Amino acid sequence: MTKAITPKIIIAVDGYSSSGKSSMAKALARTIGYRYIDSGAMYRAVTLYGMRHGLVADGKVDEEALVAALPEMKIDFKVAYGKQRTLLNGEDVEDEIRSMEVSNNVSPVSTIPAVRHALVEMQQAFGEEKGIVMDGRDIGTTVFPNAEMKVFVNASAETRAHRRFLELQGKGVETTYEDVLKNVVERDRIDSTRAESPLRQAEDAVCLDNSEMTISQQDEWLLNLYKSIVGEE
Ligand code: DC
Questions:
Q1: Close Cβ partners of 93 (under 8 Å, ≥ 6 residues apart)
Q2: What is the pTM of this model?
């Protein structure tokens, strides 16, 4: 008997910053052969573009000019040496968009409705053929409200700040735990109180608090959820 082909679905992974959702989403995409899209990287790329052109600085944004420049920004992704890289107009900006300077400016950029509309359209285009894992804040609520699988990931602010601090240290970025915690708390506040697409759990999302989980435990949890949804053993 031939084995039935598993239909491709859309998987939305939302959650707070540094909750580990990107690592989980990436690992699942790799295991099941799906494309992974980091929607936060797209907001970061727009922020970097604005910073480079003098339109974004110190948490202040020249909204009109940034929105006018949106058609000039082509954001894409490639995989190099097994790692996902973000491209802004063909340039690999993966490392630069992770800097503290971009992190400190990205929230105000992501509150601008016209920026959100443009990026949501691009994100929906990435999902046209399904077979995609996308992570962010509003993927299950706004970008793909009909996604077949929705997960909402959370962990305490302290746990998330600690993880982010270790990650930045590993990359040689000079910062303190206190600064990282401040950034995490401030981004939580802006992400969940903004008028346009605030961070919130979709009603039909499955919630995971991974504060006490190891990476392999959370990866296994996600893979099992996927299998139960597509009906694989
Ligand atoms: O996941 P991240 O920390 O790289 O996201 C960067 C910023 O982008 C974060 O402050 C929230 C915002 N964002 C958003 O508003 N909507 C998304 N779908 C993804 C990220």
A1: 45, 48, 86, 87
A2: 0.91
